[in-house]
Amino acid sequence: MDDVLASQVAxxxxxxxxxxxxxxxxxxxxxxxARCIRVEISRGGISRLRVVDDGCGMxxxxxxxxxxxxATSKLLDAAGLFDIRHLxxxxxxxxxxxxxxxxxxxxxxxxxxxxxxxxxxxxxxxPPMSAxxxxxxxxxxxxxxxxxxVRRKFLKSDETEAGHVEHQVKLxxxxxxxIRFVFSKEGQGVFDVPATHDLRRRIADFIGREQAARLMxxxxxEAPGVxxxxxxxxxAAANRNRRMQFIFLNGRPIDDPxxxxxxxxxxxxFPTGLHPGLFLYLEVxxxxxxxxxHPAKREVRFRRPSEITLAVTDAVAATLAAHARGESDxxxxxxxxxxxxxxxxxxxxxxxxxxxxxxxxxxxxxxPAPKPQPADAPADSPxxxxxxxxxxxxxxxxxxxxxxxxxxxxxxxxxxxxxAPRAARERIIFERLLAGNKHPLASQRLLVPxxxxxxxxDMGIALEVKTQMEQAGFLISLFGRxxxxxxxxxxxxxxxxxxxxxxxxxxxxxxxxxxxxxSRSPFEPFAMQLxxxxxxxEDIEPLLQRPLPLLAELLRCEIPYCTPxxxxxxxxxxxxxxxxxxxxx
Length: 585
Ligand code: ADP
Ligand code: MG
Known about the structure:
The protein is α+β, with helices and mostly antiparallel strands.
């Protein structure tokens, strides 16, 4: 197999699309100690992409060598394989790229009087020439995959490829805030983020200052060979996708299920479908990681995973705990030059009701906990769960009707919002149950206790569930060997058919449909089921009569947008979307 073919084979692993070329070139620039890296693309980077840095540059001999396979300058000895401080170490990227495109390298070391230019076309190298140029390296790649048409066919539209490149550059920029990154496409500037020592500022350049101000700085956590730092978004600002989740390992973005799992454990689990924003930086002794699992290097293999996952879980949990104690760890980012922040490009999620309700000048670290309810609310009053004030604090929302006698419809400055009352109640009840996590919730005694006959085989699980039920405000006693007596119910949940309700709830657990021991706190999965079952059987007619207080109460929840199981509670329709659909202006 000749070298060009070998390189093309290697290119199959390294070069998948323009974004992967950019990744390799930018990594080289970072390794070269660049302070500023510029990336320009046209036609998604397929027809042309250019990476310019002000790094150490190459002398003539190195410039000639760098296109040869395994010509890395970074792997000094065999032991070096296990002690990788550079991003690149295989000496495969440049020859791979050169084998499937036209590549043009102009480079100069600061100490040399003149630079060198080498070009290579589909693996055919031209003799090097002298070039006048600034210190640093400029690499231009044109006509990607011109000689491998099948690969070229796998590329997506120019816009999609451009999107991947932009994301790639953004990842590098987040990993190395002390380097200035400039990205442009089709000759137009997309971003230019100045070098900074302040990580939050770099993050703010991408997510906007308002969002960045909500980030909680993680307490740097150290374990032998591991350091964890970064920022977390509060759960209340969680997204429905993972777009705001970034994890870096020694300067490389990683997408690793083990680390993600550790983060999730630190949060004590994520509600279904919600993904809190995070910018997590792991500094791990290179001896403890094997980054060589896949050339694209998004996965890693840890030599001692448990030490790393423990450090991550602890760091996340400690940050959230400190935040919950109200220790100030959010702070405004240093002012970022407006021209360099691309807030317009930030995707708007449909769930932007909160900022409207909580103006940004009110920098509460967490939304207020659900209001405590009077413990002696009469159990037969259907409106007991809803706050009684008639002027709910929602100046922004106007109730404009009810769709099919099922969904209240509201208008606000952003457009239209539909409310699902049962789902809303499920969320509200769940959070109220959790708010009483520390002390059992208030009970309402039944005039006549309800008797439940149990199957002997179910008693074990029933007794486990009984503990959780008492936490929620039920009072249940053992009455004979296989009989339970319900003596009181939660004060804030007026139950109509107590025996049937409790029976059904218990059955979820005795039939094994739901388990308590999966979570750190068994009360949470229990509260989820209780809230769900209660909301299902509740009479919603009174709620439909007075939907504004219900909406107000929902919006006071920590995560108002969905039920604990992840079903939506609100459906927003933004004016911009409606206008677009009508093709108005
Ligand atoms: P690797 O990064 O694995 O060493 P590459 O094929 O990416 O392999 O690069 C080969 C070599 O070319 C590098 O080891 C480095 O010496 C040199 N090189 C590549 N890009 C640059 C750059 N931007 N500045 C200075 N040297 C570079
Ligand atoms: Mg490299």
